[in-house]
């Protein structure tokens, strides 16, 4: 593929344990350093397939935001690596595979090389993945020193490993033989970051000054916890792995009561367990940030795959009626910005903010321009003026114009109040009277009105005047941006502030032919738009098989609708 | 401070004669003679008759969820280590709904004190069996007798490595006050099980029943094994007092950050640019 082609779609596939993911990440970074935009997508299921892992990198001179289907290069570390991806291969696809693997009657161009033999010669069979990287570097035509540099960064001072890996890279480069690209891509002059949605969420929270992250592991939320745990000491924060999700949410609430910025994160099943705690934060009116990384349900569902089936669940989280906020970033930049904003809003309105992501966003890698630092979010609405002499205790739940009341933090003399999950009066002491209930329930819901003014309107990508508008939320942004490139008269309207749905969003959507694009089967966003904005779509495109939408797939469907 | 000053204007709604009054009195007494300023005390309550104490004590309080007071308390203590954090809950609360948290906290040793009101029954929900109800005892949900073996919180906590384990009696306020203040002062996780007559729903384990059987420990046992033996309930004898105490690292010390500083006071701007650079 000469670089006139503009994009390269590379995939490595093989058994779990062969370092598929880390090899893929090196490829993503190398292509990024050579000046291309990348999108890295990983699949690592699935017990039925016997632990078959893949990592796919799409790279281009223009921004790319979603995996594509047809492969230019497939590196298969075993036979399954080819067989299972037959559909993604056409006659142009170069298939790099060990010479021992017997492949019959497929359409691609086989490049059989002695990966394993050479790896053994070097003294470590595992480096076959690095040899494969060397072959790939030659086929794509990327300067090998970029790969060497990445390997150096990875192995650092472990001299022996470093040497083996460097040699493996060279061996691979040589093995490519005549297939080697002559036209070389050299280093980019402008650096970009290669970042996953999880890393972006974690860094948004760090930038906001989050002090405590407590969680119980659950895919695909866990990478955020891993990342924060790794940096906790350096960045002065604490990560606590709790006994379960119920403990996690309650612990975060306790820390928030004491004045600390706290967050928890999980996926569907764990979020189900957190419901009572989310409701508690609503009643106690304490700031709480919860990341909900969606995966297909119900129940355990498809643990390592993606979907957008929990939008309604997030909006309706917790029992009883109270103000809550749901934000749904569509890419790492939004993930960073909205993770930060989640802390701002949680403080401002003293309530729960749910950050809705999914496996596709959480575990894919994207090209991102350098992010910006931000000031630490202040713990707000806290007073150091204790109770007035005529008051028995501090009036923490004092009715106010926008529903938000000042609180005190433990430690303040005469600031005592009870954060009471029972209905209560201003000082938090129990009060079951009809009058007080009425005052308090209205007060808590009053916040919704002001929150609405902080909800950004959906953004239109592409031309303003079009035949048809795709509408989506969260990570479908990626595929939607790719799809609209293929049309002159289709644009994309993106919701990332999904709840409370801003009523002014109506003005953005009104008078257009809307086609809702969602990774779920019931059209959860479409339903909300109908319910809260009174607007319907002319059609919809839905999918919930755990896989992301692919560009061609959506393009074809859009063509049919037009 | 006098312990009456800790009263709120809400007078307890407990049934006259309930053991909760004794625990309430002992807790207030213990707080009133504490060295720590009272504004640095936070009590986290569960849900139940015991948890209703939330509205009767004038200190910082969180009246949380049924069974979930311990993780809230742990979060508060992690956030601000200057605070003294106390949990008040029932046997249903801490051993039924919330037993996982009691188990976890016994193991991880956060510096909190848990006061477990043991009335062997669910009071607030009007008299169902609790995880401590004696096998065969009759209740609204088991009119023919509770089928399960009762848990023994003292023994449970001991086997899980809790650093301080005690049992007191709601009918002996003075003794209970000493136990509670010792527990609050102890650095690490303290469990204080309190024998608490429920005069409305438990007609067997009455004040008189307990008084006939209770015997006081002179001092803590040397080993967990000895303490375990003393913790047993028999129909003849129930020991109260401090069973065991051990000094060991408190949750949080394994975190470099917490050893150096108080989480609450960390407001430093984070130097993110270096981190961003590492993503190239
Ligand atoms: C999740 C949940 N389940 C059930 C209840 C109902 N409930 C309230 S108090 C209680 C039991 C109280 O018993 P115990 O903890 O022994 O306290 P006591 O009332 O005896 O002091 C139950 C089941 C609840 N509030 N929340
Ligand atoms: S029901 Fe039992 S535990 Fe509850 S207040 Fe009455 S006597 Fe006390």
Give an overview of the whole structure.
The complex is a heterodimer of chains A (562) and B (280). Chain A is α/β, with parallel strands linked by helices and 562 residues long. Helices cover 36% and strands 19% of the residues of chain A. Chain A has 19 helices and 21 strands. Chain A has an 8-stranded mixed sheet with strand order 6-5-4-1-3-2-14-7. In chain A, strands 9-8-10-11-13-12-19 form a 7-stranded mixed sheet, sandwiched between helices. In chain A, strands 16-18-17-20-21 form a 5-stranded mixed sheet, with helices on both faces. In chain A, helix 2 (80-83) links the parallel strand 4 and strand 5 (94-98). In chain A, helix 3 crosses helix 4. The longest helix of chain A is centred in the C-terminal third of the chain and has 21 residues, at 434-454. Chain A is globular and about 90 Å long. In chain A, 56% of the residues are buried. With 280 residues, chain B is of the alpha/beta class. Chain B has one domain: Thiamin diphosphate (ThDP)-binding fold, Pyr/PP domains (Rossmann fold, 3-Layer(aba) Sandwich). In chain B, 30% of the residues lie in helices and 18% in strands. Chain B contains 10 helices and 10 strands. In chain B, helix 1 packs across helix 6 (173-185), helix 3 crosses helix 4 (99-108) and helix 5 runs antiparallel to helix 8. The radius of gyration of chain B is 20 Å and the shape is globular. The N and C termini of chain B lie far apart (60 Å). The mean pLDDT of chain B is 95. Chains A and B meet through helix 1, strand 7, helix 7, helix 9 and helix 11 of A and strand 1, strand 2, helix 2, helix 4 and helix 9 of B. The complex binds thiamine diphosphate and iron/sulfur cluster.
